[in-house]
From TrEMBL:
It comes from Eubacterium ramulus. The active site is at residue 145. Transmembrane segments: none annotated. InterPro entries: Anaerobic_Co-chelatase. Co(2+) binds at residues 145, 176, 208. The gene is cbiK_2. The lineage of its organism: Bacteria, Bacillati, Bacillota, Clostridia, Eubacteriales. This is Sirohydrochlorin cobaltochelatase. It comes from the Bacteria. Gene3D superfamilies: 3.40.50.1400.
Length: 260
């Protein structure tokens, strides 16, 4: 039986970010599934269009990738998204997959990075190994994407669990959800914090990290904090560049569950 694994990312138009964040995750998942043909799809049509027009690079949509796999005779399929939470993109992926169930004998879907309690513990442990939170009195502020979806609750839940482990100098903000950077800033001011380290809590260190977090615009997170006297050093490294995150996604692919 021909077997395939489809890895679905939101996507990025930054080629360097793709190489540093998406490719290593795909390689880890592929290595964990020997004998499976790997294909890539992006969820963002805007990014797919930009890559094609600017660089002549063609990336499949999810539907295109599924059609290609079906025509190639794939019968057993694992789909692993590289999303951080169960947000709108994940819901949309499930809906698309349901349309193609009759073209495969088996379709299994892996969960996003943060799915169950053990994922939170593993992420916190891994981030602490990277940043060594207790080594500095600086505040560590992570930028999540955020969403209007109820899954946005993952971000304050993650912050709560980080601080419950004694890392009381670690905070989570989001670009498009709650908490916002202004919420984080007020907490830092109450603590008379003078220095901070900013880092993405996203798979890819792309546009949000380079512009919304570390950019020169007056509304970038760096400038918002520094206007209030909080020095901000920015780390431009997406979660996909960390070996422990690559391993987590590979484990989720191995634990993928059948879609009915």
């Amino acid at each position: 039986m021909k077997k395939g694994v489809l890895i679905v990312s939101f996507g990025t138009s930054y080629r360097e970010a793709e190489a540093q964040n998406i490719n290593p995750v795909e390689q880890a998942i592929s290595a964990a599934l020997p004998g499976y043909e790997m294909r890539r799809a992006y969820g963002s049509r805007r990014i797919i269009k930009k890559l094609k027009e600017r660089d002549g690079i063609c990336i499949d949509t999810v539907s295109e990738a599924l059609e290609t796999l079906a025509v190639a005779g794939c019968k057993e399929l694992i789909v692993q998204p590289t999303y951080v939470i169960h947000g709108y993109e994940y819901d949309e992926l499930v809906e698309i997959l349901r349309e193609y169930l009759n073209q495969f004998e088996s379709v299994r879907l892996g969960h996003p990075l943060l799915h169950q309690q053990s994922d939170y513990k593993e992420l916190i442990c891994g981030l602490n190994e990277v940043f060594d939170f207790r080594s500095s009195s600086d505040a560590f502020v992570f930028m999540g994407h955020g969403t209007g979806h109820f899954a946005n609750a993952c971000y304050p839940a993650l912050e709560h669990q980080i601080q419950a482990q004694g890392f009381t100098n670690v905070w989570i903000g989001t670009v498009e959800g709650y908490p916002e950077i202004t919420d984080v800033k007020e907490k830092l001011k109450q603590l008379s914090c003078q220095k901070s380290v900013l880092a993405p809590l996203m798979l890819v260190a792309g546009d949000h990290a380079r512009n919304d977090m570390a950019g020169e615009d007056e509304n970038s997170w760096k400038n918002i904090l520094e206007r209030d006297g909080i020095e901000a050093d920015c780390m431009i490294a997406g979660l996909g560049s960390y070996a422990f995150v690559q391993r987590m996604f590979a484990e989720h692919a191995l634990q993928a569950e059948e879609i009915r």
